[in-house]
Amino acid sequence: MSTEHNSQSNNIKLKSHLFEEYGGFADKRIKNLSKSNRFIVDDRDKQCDYGANNELYSWFCPIIIEVNEDSSIQVLLFNFPTSRKILGWINAGNAIIQDSTCLVITVGLQETSLLREYASYVSDIVKPGNTYSVPSYKYVCPRTAQSLCRLVDVLEEFNCMVDGFS
């Protein structure tokens, strides 16, 4: 019973940490930590990432995370950048593709290096000297990688806080 209570307590602490770091849940109307588990973590900017119709630009890579009951994280990337290296990484079982436009990466709190690895592959797409067929990758890849690295930093900060209280 104490393990279950500890898991629930960590889950609420994690959601609280993410809520504070990312300014609330994906649905900004929800404030109660037990009522939602989705956060927008793509660092979108109202000034730069939305068109005149108030919709995200079609080339933007939205990143949403869901906190599972066991405090593992599901990272959902829509319109995600891809390359041969990334497809090999996905095929190695590190992630799954849903509906051809959504990449789902599930990680435990101690497995954040998987996200950093994916972020480095995304950055590699637009390294100087590389060619890529999608012109918007010039903007999408650095921003997506940066948002993923920030998420890793936030999760690692949470891990340090929890380990410090254990």
Principal-axis shape equals: globular
Strand order of the largest sheet: 1-2-3-5-4
Helix content: 40-55%
Strand content: 5-15%
Determine the structural class based on helices, strands and strand pairing.
alpha+beta
Count of discrete structural domains: 1
Overall pLDDT: 91
Number of strands: 5
Give the CA-CA distance, first to last residue: 17 Å
Query: Assembly state here?
Result: single chain
Topology order in helix (H) and strand (E) letters: HEEEHEEHH
Number of separate helices: 4
Profile the largest sheet. Answer: 5 strands, antiparallel
Output the radius of gyration: 17 Å
Low-confidence stretches: none
Summary?
It is built from four helices and five strands; from the N terminus they run H-E-E-E-H-E-E-H-H. It has 166 residues and is of the alpha+beta class.
Describe the structure.
The protein has 166 residues and is of the alpha+beta class. The chain has one domain. It contains 4 helices and 5 strands, in the order αβββαββαα. It has a 5-stranded antiparallel β-sheet. A hairpin with a 3-residue loop joins β4 (96-98) and β5 (102-107). α1 (2-22) crosses α4 (137-165).
Looking at this protein, list some descriptive labels.
alpha+beta; five-stranded antiparallel β-sheet
Task: Chart the SSEs and their pairings.
Elements: H1 2-22, E1 38-40, E2 63-67, E3 73-78, H2 84-94, E4 96-98, E5 102-107, H3 113-125, H4 137-165
Antiparallel strand pairs: 1-2, 2-3, 3-5, 4-5
Helix pairs in contact: 1-4, 2-3, 3-4
